[in-house]
């Protein structure tokens, strides 16, 4: 698990709709024939007849092997129960998948679910493949109650009432993500102003201001899983909420803005839903946008708003702005990866370089969530003389293939023959034509 908050010392209802579920299980699906047995009811009474739950789902969305789907659950009985994220199952042919969790990144949660309560969320699963429309028709989503009863979700109609399905929970207290960023922006401005007026002033602490001494420890990233000219109409949002507070994100209050100032909203089919972001957890979800996000229109940035009808604003003035990156990875587990030249330069540090025989080594320290994509084909050793002569030696291997940790890691590059190029006056290790290390 990335130790992301060892490096970030600063940074972090009524209306809760889709919550991204990521609880247990990271197995991938192999598509098989349709199952013969199906539960036919979307409302099943548990062994305690007083507990009844209705369960429905919205449209499936896919990106880099992830499948996300909004769900609505209603406790129509007279007994309270508990929503356990581990009890959701996606059935893809004969394969059963539980909500997505990457390695040791915790993503599960439990919510008290009282009688009359309504709950919405967005569940995310790692199928490992892109399911066709015909395969999606055979997918089944179930929830297992405490008594072992299995409830199969029915499809939500296109005309489903937003007010009828609005979350109503007495057990959860959250802040919307737009308000969080606006609060932290105002706090930072106020602290700066007070310090300018009186350098010795004791400013109000995070604990005093927000009742949370870890309120600055929320990070979020957006990956666009396509670098081609066509772009991608789906993006993947990942949030690490290491605060002590729970948050929500209404998809209707989220947008991307390209380099020309054009705004791209979330697709209309998702705007009525909301993502739940529990404290101490990672949350991952595939989000459909109303149009394609193309790398040719970079740079993009994320904007939020506090409420429907309000103005959108950038997150750059909060504790930790939401980062966005393009990725050509088709595997969800390495989707949030960047090459050495695309990695934020302030977040990657090289040291302790050494040359021995035909190998180059150096330590790398990452201070961002993104993995380092250390593909050997991008590297080469370039020697230049002052008279204009140049020699290029390709790198034949680079290990490790990925650097997925913020711990200091030794990287090793092998070259068939370093002796000739090292005789040149100026020698560098390059990636995609940009210098990574100066060797001589």
Largest sheet: 7 strands, mixed
Global Rg: 25 Å
The overall pLDDT, averaged over residues, is 86
Residue share in β-strands: 35-45%
Number of strands: 34
* Separate helix tally: 3
**First CA to last CA: what distance?**
36 Å
Helix content: under 10%
- The secondary structure category is mainly beta
Question: Which regions contain 5 or more consecutive residues with pLDDT less than 50?
Answer: 5-48
- Spatial shape: globular
Question: What can you see in these coordinates?
Answer:
- The protein is mostly beta strands.
- Helix content is 7%, strand content 40%.
- It has helices spanning 133-137, 177-197, 206-210, and strands at residues 20-21, 43-45, 52-57, 61-63, 66-75, 81-84, 88-92, 95-97, 110-113, 118-126, 140-144, 150-152, 154-155, 174-176, 218-224, 232-241, 246-250, 254-257, 263-265, 274-277, 281-293, 301-304, 313-314, 323-326, 337-338, 348-356, 359-366, 371-373, 379-384, 390-399, 402-403, 409-415, 426-431, 434-438.
- A hairpin with a 2-residue loop joins strand 33 and strand 34.
- It comes from Limosilactobacillus mucosae (Lactobacillus mucosae).
- Keywords: Signal.
- Residues 1-22 form the signal peptide.
- This is Lipoprotein.
């Amino acid at each position: 698990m990335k130790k992301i908050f060892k490096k970030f010392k600063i940074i972090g209802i009524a209306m809760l709709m889709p919550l991204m579920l990521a609880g247990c299980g990271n197995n991938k699906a192999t598509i098989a024939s349709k199952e013969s047995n199906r539960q036919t009811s979307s409302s099943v009474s548990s062994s305690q007849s007083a507990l009844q739950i209705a369960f429905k789902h919205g449209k499936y969305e896919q990106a880099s092997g992830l499948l996300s789907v909004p769900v609505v659950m209603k406790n129509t009985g007279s007994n309270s129960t508990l929503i356990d994220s581990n009890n959701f199952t996606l059935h893809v042919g004969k394969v059963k998948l539980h909500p997505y969790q990457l390695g040791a990144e915790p993503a599960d949660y439990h919510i008290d679910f009282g009688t009359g309560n309504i709950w919405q969320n967005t569940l995310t699963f790692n199928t490992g493949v892109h399911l066709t429309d015909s395969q999606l028709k055979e997918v089944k989503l179930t929830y297992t109650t405490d008594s072992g009863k299995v409830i199969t979700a029915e499809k939500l109609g296109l005309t489903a009432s937003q007010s009828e399905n609005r979350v109503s929970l007495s057990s959860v207290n959250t802040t919307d993500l737009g308000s969080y960023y606006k609060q932290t922006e105002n706090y930072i401005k106020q602290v700066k102003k007070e310090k300018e007026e009186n350098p010795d002033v004791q400013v109000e602490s995070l604990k005093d201001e927000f009742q949370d001494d870890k309120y600055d420890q929320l990070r979020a990233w957006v990956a666009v899983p396509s670098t081609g000219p066509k772009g991608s109409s789906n993006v993947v949002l990942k949030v690490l909420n290491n605060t002590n507070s729970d948050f929500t994100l209404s998809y209707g209050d989220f947008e991307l803005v390209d380099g020309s100032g054009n705004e791209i909203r979330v697709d209309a089919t998702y705007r009525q839903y909301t993502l739940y972001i529990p404290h101490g957890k990672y949350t991952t979800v595939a989000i459909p946008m109303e149009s394609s996000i193309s790398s040719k229109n970079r740079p993009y940035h994320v904007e939020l708003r506090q409420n429907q009808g309000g103005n959108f604003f950038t997150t750059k003035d909060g504790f930790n702005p939401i980062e966005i990156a393009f990725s050509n990875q088709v595997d969800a587990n390495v989707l949030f990866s960047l090459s050495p030249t695309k990695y934020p330069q302030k977040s990657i540090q090289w040291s302790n370089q050494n040359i021995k025989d035909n190998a180059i080594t150096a330590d790398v320290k990452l201070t961002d969530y993104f993995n380092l994509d250390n593909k050997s084909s991008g590297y080469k050793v370039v020697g230049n003389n002052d008279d204009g002569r140049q020699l290029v030696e390709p790198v034949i291997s680079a290990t490790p293939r990925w650097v997925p940790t913020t711990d200091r890691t030794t990287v090793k590059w092998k070259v068939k023959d370093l002796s000739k190029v090292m005789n040149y006056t100026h020698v560098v290790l390059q990636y995609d034509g940009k210098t990574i290390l100066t060797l001589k």
